[in-house]
Design a protein that fits this description.
By secondary structure, this protein is mainly alpha-helical. It has twelve helices and three strands. Helices cover about 60% and strands about 5% of the residues.
């Protein structure tokens, strides 16, 4: 059942909201639903809790969203859950009593270069699953693409001879270069492994599950968690962690913000600027620990 679409109808027909209001509120609710999928193991809107709404506001602030955007999100989500309560779909409104002023600044979790190396070493290239997982993780860190983009990639999006991938998302396209280890991992997977896995020779998906069908977001989540456990890394690694680490490591090594923005596919530079705050915070932490008078 599409609760978001029904809510849109309710706003337009019963509340007589303007098209702009309907569009804004639906966008806010949809983005929150996507956040729950990515960061709370596929949790749906019906099971959202107050701390998830609060966490999302902190996440928004950490991404450089303005106070006005966060306040509007809270209005949207309160309105949506009031509708869900009145429709009898949920018993309580998880956003009730929350205020936008309490949103905490939350910086993304970043892996160090050594932790990334340890994480990427986990898949063992001894069977089809190992080769596939190795190629997926290398590609993710090589390009910083979103998980939704990773699982949407088709075979035709690869240009291994030239060393780049073509990525189309949110109506925009971008070309992202690959380092040689990622190219080699993808060559091995595409040439020797993928043909064994695909169930149908007409399958265009680059990455498939062990049944030969396109990899799902939930399937990839499980892969990430498995290798985090195997590596013994205590930081909470989500599918987005390698994207954040990709951006920070490029920034630390001298890449300019505009290039990183282009590679990440951010429409707004303010979304990319969060990574400069992360680097500054790391420098401050180092200073506090290392300076004798700090």
């Amino acid at each position: 059942m599409d609760y978001i679409a029904e809510y849109g109808t309710y706003l337009a027909e019963e509340k007589h909201a303007s098209p702009n209001t309907v569009s804004s509120y639906l966008r806010d609710v949809t983005q929150f639903a996507e956040y729950l999928q990515s960061y709370h193991q596929g949790c749906d809107l019906k099971r959202a809790k107050a701390e998830m709404v609060q966490g999302y506001m902190g996440w928004m602030q950490g991404r450089g969203k303005s106070a006005a955007s966060i306040t509007r999100f809270l209005a949207s989500i309160k309105s949506f859950f009031n509708y869900m309560v009145s429709a009898g779909t949920v018993k309580t409104n998880p956003a009730k009593g929350l205020s936008a002023g309490r949103a905490e600044r939350k910086y993304p979790e970043i892996l160090t270069s050594k932790e990334v190396e340890l994480f990427l070493e986990q898949p063992q290239c001894v069977d089809a699953k190992g080769f596939r997982d190795h190629a997926m993780l290398e590609l993710l860190y090589a390009t910083g693409i979103r998980v939704s983009e990773l699982i949407s990639l088709d075979l035709d999006d690869l240009n291994l001879a030239a060393g780049f991938i073509h990525c189309a998302s949110k109506g925009k396209e971008r070309i992202i270069p690959l380092y040689h280890v990622a190219v080699k991992a993808l060559q091995d997977y595409v040439k020797d492994i993928r043909p064994q896995l695909i169930a149908d020779s007409g399958e265009r998906a680059l990455f498939v599950n062990m049944n030969g069908e396109r990899m799902s977001r939930q399937g990839f989540w499980k892969i990430i968690k498995h290798y985090q456990e195997k590596a013994g890394i205590e930081k909470d690694i989500t599918p987005h962690t390698l994207r954040h680490s990709f951006a920070v490591h490029l920034l630390e090594n001298g890449a300019d913000l505009r290039s990183i923005q282009e590679m990440l596919g951010h429409a707004d530079i303010s979304s990319t600027q969060i990574y400069t705050h992360v680097v500054k915070k790391q420098l401050k932490d180092v200073y506090q620990k290392a300076h004798p008078r700090a």
